[in-house]
Amino acid sequence: MSGRQEEGPAAFYVTWEAVEPNIRSAFKATKNLRQIDGASLVADKHLWQILRYVCAPRISEEDLWTLVGKKFKTVPAAFSDAAAKTFSSLIDMKRFPWVIAGRDPTDAELEASIIATATLQAHEALSTSRRGSASKSQELQVSEALGAAGWTLDNSRSPVVSLDEIQRGHFSCERKVGGAKCDIPIRLNDGRLLALECKVSNGPKNSWKRLQREVGGKADAWKQAYGSQVITGAVLAGVFDLKCLADAQNQQNVVLFWQHDLKPLVEFIQAK
Question: What are the chain's domains?
């Protein structure tokens, strides 16, 4: 929180200035959203990401893929018309009233809608960037603590199917375990694996998503795949709901640690 206060609105303004020209380009490519077609989506591989923010409400990648019927990073030609139709049907008529009226926007309407859309996209982009930066910081701090405790970094990123693919006393970073990405898998000396996740929460409500849905969901999957041979843990920072923490520990058997004090984590792995 103190870092956020020191940063002030500067980071938001920088992000806003970065996304605003792209939104103007997207409007130009689609004749101010009146002509969204498959050819435009194929020609500009980034256009679909911008058009997610002209929908009401903003449509997630996952929801778009479900509606179109295909998961993609760039819109495939075979699904471009379906994607264009989806965007056209979901356009926010409050921000873009000229679309439903079948006319060109006034200068005032166009500028207001661009400002609103840039604000929406900048807010999400900055939030995503902050979460990623905080998570990377956690992973680095945990890795340094493990190294200082005598654990050896295994630089492999190949998926782990058998736990023996990570030697005892070794750990990795961002590696799939049993089909699910694990931030830091740690092979304990007793042969078990501590699947450690790094999570930052900015409030009680957000903590349920970060811990219960994301970590708890992986814990259930790892338990099903490996039984008691995998222990799921989480290194936490930020604000977490107390009941969320209790449920993670008592119902999903997640071992919890805090970023500001990693000594209990080191003691935990050394005791196994």
Answer: 2-126 (no CATH), 149-270 (3.40.1350.10)
